[in-house]
């Protein structure tokens, strides 16, 4: 059986459990890589999709068939989260592809004045206490959540 990421899954049965297992090579080395990329809410979402898709298509590791895909998949606390889905010919290309894609995305963001957003964390007044960290460094404080 093959999953959505084009990985073969072995489903055990009685023969598999009770008899000798031979580790055959996989019939297909094609696999899908999924990268999640946040974007600032103020950015043109259609442009982000277009740029991420172009970056994926230009990757030296990305296959043309099936073609790369980009989707807005989530709004985490108001932060748009995109998924880039790219097929590669061999699992060994997974890390080089991820590295290349991340570098190109960061480069695009920096060249276009886009700050890579972080998921916001909220602290309320009654959750924050300030304690003196070290008497040798009187201006140094640490913060604890209570």
UniProtKB/TrEMBL annotation:
SUPFAM superfamilies: Mechanosensitive channel protein MscS (YggB), C-terminal domain. InterPro entries: MS_channel_C, MscS-like_channel, MscS_channel_C_sf. This is Mechanosensitive ion channel. It comes from the Bacteria. Residues 33-115 form the Mechanosensitive ion channel MscS C-terminal domain.
């Amino acid at each position: 059986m093959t999953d959505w990421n084009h990985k073969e899954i072995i489903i055990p049965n009685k023969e598999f459990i009770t008899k000798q297992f031979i580790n055959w090579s996989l019939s297909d080395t094609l696999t899908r890589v999924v990268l999640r990329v946040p974007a600032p809410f103020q950015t043109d979402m259609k442009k982000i999709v277009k740029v991420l898709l172009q970056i994926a298509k230009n990757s030296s590791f990305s296959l043309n068939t099936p073609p790369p895909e980009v989707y807005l998949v989530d709004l985490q606390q108001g932060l748009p989260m995109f998924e880039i889905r790219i097929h590669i010919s061999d699992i060994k290309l997974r890390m080089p592809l991820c590295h290349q894609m991340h570098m190109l995305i960061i480069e695009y963001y920096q060249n276009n004045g886009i700050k890579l957003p972080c998921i916001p964390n909220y602290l309320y007044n009654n959750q924050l206490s300030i304690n003196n960290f070290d008497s040798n460094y009187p201006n140094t404080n640490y913060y604890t959540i209570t």
